[in-house]
Amino acid sequence: MAELDLHTDRPHPARVYDYLLGGKDNFAADREAAQKGLQANPDSRIPPRENRLFLRRAVRYLAERGIDQFLDVGTGIPSAPNVHHVAQEITPTARIVYVDNDPIVLTHARALLTSHPSGRTDYIDADLRDVETILRSKALTDTLDLNRPVGLLLIAILHFIGDEHDPWAIVQRLLAALPPGSYLALSHLTGDFRPEAWEQVAEVYRKQGVTMKVRSRPEIERFFTGLDMIDPGLQILPAWHPDLGDPTDPAPSDAQVSVYGGVARKH
Ligand SMILES: C[S@@+](CC[C@H](N)C(=O)[O-])C[C@H]1O[C@@H](n2cnc3c(N)ncnc32)[C@H](O)[C@@H]1O
Questions:
Q1: Rounded mean pLDDT of 8-21?
Q2: 125 Cβ closer than 6 Å to some ligand 1 atom
Q3: Is the pTM above the cut of 0.70?
């Protein structure tokens, strides 16, 4: 593998997220940004934790409905259980393609390639904004059968894509490549409950050259345009199918979580 420039002098979303989850794959600049974020919003560790729990519940929900192919874009530094662990526990033959644009995630991709022998996983080093590269990638076409339904996972990634890149069109382009019966599972940070605190967190990122755009409920609902929303609709994460996992005790408030999530089906 060619030597990668990890840009350890500035924070990267995957590494800040790793730090907030209690991981070790982060550098001083990431920890500093995370600490500044924690000063602006002392509950900053709660969204990543609830987000991982939502991801696992959503994958379980889809796998239980027969979805055995997943495209997980913005996969993050591996944090077990990952998508293939959850999906292959239900369907050992499940196939998963992971995508991220951060070189540190690439260096950890091996941990994502530990598929059950009867299933398969692969990894694409690509940017969500470059949908064509993802869709044309051999790793994708060799691993997933795009004539059969796919679970598209966009979990805590779209708030790193500014409006100027039209993230809504990006989601529609990806969905257009998937057949009816496919699903979209999505989560997204919101400033609806604590606008000032989240604006300050976003500012910490922006000053370091990282886009962070928290969005309102209607802006996040727009990502599901043209799809059939699955009950209970778009929710603050712990309220989305708590039956499918172990809820956090005591339950965090909506303001502490500040992430909406939902699942919808393409007809
Ligand atoms: C907050 S983490 C979420 C990780 C995982 N989806 C989860 O929910 O636990 C966001 C991930 O999205 C990746 N990411 C951000 N912008 C991206 C882009 N434009 N293309 C691909 N990946 C991106 C980051 O590198 C990071 O790993």
A1: 93
A2: no
A3: yes
